[in-house]
User: Fold this.
Amino acid sequence: MLNDSFFYHDGFLHCDALDLRILAEHTGTPVYVYSASRIRANLCRLQNAFAPLDAVLHYSIKANGNLALLRLISQAGIDMDAVSGGEIYRARRAGVAPQRILFAGVGKTSAEIRYALDEKVEWFNVESADELCLLNTLACTASYTPSVVLRLNPGIEAQTHRHIATGHARAKFGMPAPIIAELLVHRADYPHVRIAGLHLHIGSQLGDVQETVQAVQLAQALLAPYPDIYTLDIGGGFPVAYTTDDEYPAPDAFAKALFPLLKGWQIFVEPGRSVVADAGVLLVSVLYHKEQGGQRFVIVDGSMTDLIRPALYEAVHPVVPLHKTELNLRDAMVVGPVCESTDVLNRSCLLPDLSASDYLAVMGAGAYGMVMASNYNMRPRAPEVLVENNTWRVIRRRETWDDVLRCEEDEV
Ligand code: LLP
Assistant:
């Protein structure tokens, strides 16, 4: 969807002051393009929304972990939410201090926990009783006492795609209320960690504020007997409108609904998608078209290996031409070269007549795009470019075939 950073000017799609055609000609396609100013504006909007709660924002690195973006986000005063040793490593390489990193995730290995402790990562979100035991054991030789928030599985079915709902009872995430209650009663058994609070994340692209409110109330009820435990990490999940038909609550609707509940609590928030999704596009080029079975196919050089969201979540990312024309707009399915029927970037969008080499932009691709890209079909991953006003720089170069083969034995 078009916004303040991605708009048509004189008939050509721009990212801020840059004509995207010029960029695509330099870099080739497929290429991810991000707007620095849009990321800053999104951060500002989230900071303003959660300012009344005095919340500490931890950007969810999993949404887009490019080092240049992490530096930009960290410089805006945002802390980091990492879900693997690798993401901690990334955050450290981007210059983020360990006190500003929170280590979450349902399956941390002991090697990852050791690494996080060696790095003196301040916060751990713990998802099982076994993990708490392991962390307590490993922390016994650490030079500091890490702080822990226990992840509650509130048994709440969030209104979102089933693949990104995490708060229902059958989900692998967090612990049910009775287990949390038990751990809190016996918290003295874990002397090498400081149990500081609870964590919730009931899903991503959340459609309803009230479900988060309910989950927070449940967490607060569990903590009622412990006035010295007052940290609540309310997770991420703030939704983004991908198409003009999407209607979702804005981040400040979540903040406003929670405000009356959260006075006096230390609050953490973990936004990912809402920081970067609408700050990025994937540019692709038309290779061929054909009409068959009553369907118009536009075959492009980008694919599900670049952006898997349409295949995995039936996500709708509008596809628009870089050169806008209203002439002869017709329905088209935009597909990639990969040998899979699910290799579709958009099932149904209105596109004009197109020729080979014409450029298209897949909108709203800044979150869970490049980070979920793969080398399937031996496809090198696309480069990433960061736009600052009318200048741009490559923040990750295009992979080569040799990059893809780097980790394999190559004996002749
Ligand atoms: N905190 C936790 C514990 C999470 O699991 C997630 C996302 C976030 C924060 C950030 O959520 P966000 O603000 O981005 O909604 N690949 C999927 C989304 C998976 C989300 C995983 N967890 C997609 O492309 O829609």
Notes: Residues 60, 63, 81, 104, 164, 201, 204-205, 235-238, 270-274, 309, 313, 368 surround LLP (CB under 6 Å). The mean pLDDT is 96. The two ends are 50 Å apart (CA to CA). The longest strand covers residues 280-292.
